[in-house]
Amino acid sequence: MCVLRGAMTEQAFQIIARGPRAAAEAAAEAVDADILLEGATYSILEEDEDRGVWRIDAFPTSDAEAGRFETVLADFDALKVSREVLADADWLAMALSGLPPVKAGRFFIYGVHDRGRAPPHTVNLRIEAGAAFGTGHHGTTVGCLLAYDRLLKAGTYPKVLDVGAGTGVLAIAAARTGSKLAVGTDIDRVSVRISRENATVNKTGARFVHASGLGHRLVATHAPYDLVFANILARPLIGLAQDIKGALKPGGVAILSGLLRTQERAVKAAYLSRGFRVAFVIRRDAWVALVLRRA
Predict the structure, then answer these.
(1) Neighbouring-strand partners of residue 292
(2) 119: phi then psi, degrees, rounded to nearest 5
(3) Is the peptide bond preceding residue 224 cis, with omega within 30 degrees of 0?
(4) Which residue, 61, 130, 40, 56, is CA-closest to 94?
(5) DSSP E strand stretches across the chain
(6) What pLDDT, on a 0 to 100 scale, did the predictor assign at position 130?
(7) Would you say residue 57 lies in a domain?
(8) For 35, 53, 94, 170, which has the most beta carbons within 10 A of its beta carbon?
(9) What is the pLDDT of residue 275?
(10) CA distance 48 to 272
């Protein structure tokens, strides 16, 4: 999905937008569709169930990106937009250090600050996010892990590809649960470095490469795959539909996420038209994980 690329030259801040669910989801779609915010970091979640308040948190990495976020969000009158100053130099590291561990099916994801809390009977993954997306806390990552946990009840997947790997959590989860080959790609070099470090920490042979799309030699050499993760965004998911089909064995499985519930129909249509069928769907907060099987 998205990547944090470093703080702004001035004091870092986040942009917060609060309002009803429909407005928040429409604003998130507008952010996804804005070419100037491609790869920008934000999240959407339900803040107050009783009052029906949803919240967007955006973390701009430049003044230009901050201005663009505010311009896009300002188009939605139902949202109240504000700024909140973050700690100075190491705000990202400080925020991550306070994240609690996450359990998703058999998987338990934790940071170094929680290494003593890992249960004895789960697949424990130590994931340090650094400047990459994918600590396991976001609804898209949790949805992918829950989907994978469900699939594993029927057997393992020898060859797995993770498109847009971020921290590498999904490929590492595959490598820890029976996959003989787990390959991850990301368009961000920092993410590739962090994913490789996480693979080493978790004592796996998962491999990660810097690549856009599925044309990298390492990816192509090992195709076709039994399972492909793609936790990115709706537009690239649609654009990669044919490539993901080509990377999968007949009968192979694709776990797709990074899309809002309002984007589910469009993404699903792109894959159904290429011969996929829906195995099941996991919806968490405003996000969707589609599990599709190639015919």
Answers:
(1) 254, 278
(2) -65, 160
(3) yes
(4) 130
(5) 13-19, 42-48, 53-58, 80-85, 102-104, 107-110, 123-126, 159-163, 181-186, 207-210, 225-231, 248-260, 276-284, 287-294
(6) 55
(7) yes
(8) 170
(9) 96
(10) 35
The answer to whether residue 254 is domain-embedded is yes
Q: How many domains does the chain have?
A: 2
CATH number of the domain bearing residue 211: 3.40.50.150
Identify residue 290 by its one-letter amino acid code.
L
The parts of the chain modelled with pLDDT lower than 70 are 1-12, 39, 86-99, 113, 115, 129-138
| pTM of the predicted structure, to 2 decimals | 0.74
Q: How many CB atoms lie within 10 A of CB 45?
A: 15
Looking at residue 129, its pLDDT comes to 58
User: How many residues are recorded in the chain?
Assistant: 295
Quote the pLDDT of residue 80: 95
Residues 200-253: tens digit of each pLDDT: 999 999 999 999 889 999 999 999 999 999 998 888 999 999 999 999 999 999
Tell me, yes or no, whether 281 lies in a domain: yes
Query: Can you give the pLDDT at residue 4?
Result: 32
Domain encompassing residue 34: 13-91
DSSP letter for 100, please: P
Question: Are 145 and 86 members of one domain?
Answer: no
* Nearest in space to 40 (alpha carbons), one of 51, 27, 23, 50: 27
Residue in the block written with tokens 């992918």: 144
Crossing angle of helices 63-74 and 21-33, in 10° steps, is 130
Does 96 reside within a domain?
A: no
